[in-house]
Design brief:
mainly beta, 0% helix, 123 residues
């Protein structure tokens, strides 16, 4: 079955960096667009970033542009989110999700999700 497993979350100080990973299985990873979505405590879901297949483009929410970088390693079926210059408002559970097709890129059709990994930015 389709599985997406996030890791790399934890406690980090403001201004620090963290890299999240999402290990995928059960589908053609290299043919799928992927995304990161987050949910801050007590708030709704916020789309963060998305990336197309190898050689494709990447997009970011304005709130993270210039600080976060999305990337993928198709040989190892892994999606990454490099987060730099972290702020307290970045505190959230971060989910990776698979897009159902390129037609829904970059924010729609997220048909499979991981369980999430918690990132806490605090001093």
């Amino acid at each position: 079955e389709v599985q997406l497993v996030e890791s790399g979350g934890g406690l980090v100080q403001p201004g620090g960096s963290l890299r999240l990973s999402c290990l995928a299985s059960g589908f053609s990873f290299s043919s799928s667009a992927l995304s990161w979505v987050r949910q801050a405590p007590g708030k709704g879901l916020e789309w963060v970033s998305a990336i197309k297949t190898v050689g494709g483009s990447a997009k970011y929410a304005d709130s993270v542009k210039g600080r976060f970088t999305i990337s993928r390693d198709d040989a190892n079926n892994t999606l990454y989110l490099q987060m730099n210059s972290l702020k307290p408002e970045d505190t959230a559970v971060y989910y990776c999700a698979k897009l159902r097709s390129a037609l829904t890129y970059p924010v729609g059709g997220l048909n499979y999700w991981g369980k999430g990994t918690l990132v806490t930015v605090s001093s």
